[in-house]
Amino acid sequence: MMLATIDNPSNAVKWTMAEMINQPDILAKACEELDRVIGKNRLVQESDLSKLNYVKACLKESFRIHPVSPFTLPHISSKNIVMGGYFIPKGSHVVLSRPGLGRNPRIWDEPLRFKPERHIVDEVSNVSLVDHDLRILSFSTGRQGCPTLELGSTTTTMLLARLIQGFSWKQPLDTSTIDLAESKHDLSLAKPLIAHAVPRTPFHFISNEMQLYIHMFTSLMEGLVFGEADSTTIVTGNNHDFLVYPKIRGDSSTKNSPS
């Protein structure tokens, strides 16, 4: 259960960041929402998450296209039943294909396109990371749904929101686009995610709590490049032994913090 609470959110945030970096207009919309709802004088808090519909829509789109696993856990049919024209005998082991649902062209228009707007019904309806109609499977639903749904949803949204609020993201200087190819062994990114980050939040707001979120994300990445407005860059070690924080203007030293 705890592994699912960690792996599912981390996979969603990693894919979301990769997709958004490749589509700067989507990333800009998420930044605009955060600036409008939260402002620039404080960090996003859990109480703000219900107002961040576009950020949640971006995550839900990642759950749709890039699920953490190809199938759900198996369930056993307790009786003979016909579903969708298919007869399922009692005692059958039943699994659902996550990509088969999320990428189904009969349900989704342009199923392989990352389009968060498809999950926003109107300006007032709350975007939930769970789809009770089972068009996608994020944290599952019903009696057999994920028991850590609330924790997983909150953790996922907070991680993405603070990463977007704290930094401006783009491809590394020597890369034109993030490679979105899937691994041959699972549904994760085939290549490690490497990104260039420029702080957009005042340094005194990058508290220990924010540093924890940075550490959570860098643990998912091969390397993270930090930069200032003057394009000075610092690169983390690929083995994640330490975090590197941006140099404060006028300070020639680099601050390393053990993980």
How would you describe this structure to a colleague?
By secondary structure, this protein is α+β, with helices and mostly antiparallel strands. The protein is built from 6 helices and 10 strands; from the N terminus they run αααββββααββαββββ. It has helices spanning 2-22, 24-37, 53-65, 98-102, 149-166, 208-218, and strands at 75-76, 81-83, 86-88, 93-94, 167-170, 194-199, 223-227, 233-235, 242-245, 255-258. The strands form 4 sheets. The protein has a 4-stranded mixed sheet with strand order 5-6-7-8. A hairpin with a 5-residue loop joins strand 7 and strand 8 (233-235). Helix 1 packs across helix 3.
Approximately how much helix is present in the residues?
Answer: 25-40%
Span between N and C termini? Answer: 25 Å
Structural class: alpha+beta
Number of helices: 6
Biggest β-sheet, characterized? 4 strands, mixed
**Rough outline:** globular
Order of helices and strands: HHHEEEEHHEEHEEEE
**Widest β-sheet, arrangement of strands:** 5-6-7-8
Beta fraction: 5-15%
Low-confidence stretches: 1-6, 222-259
Indicate the multimeric state: single chain
Task: Compute the number of strand runs.
Answer: 10
Q: What is the typical, i.e. mean, pLDDT?
A: 77
Rg, alpha carbons:
20 Å
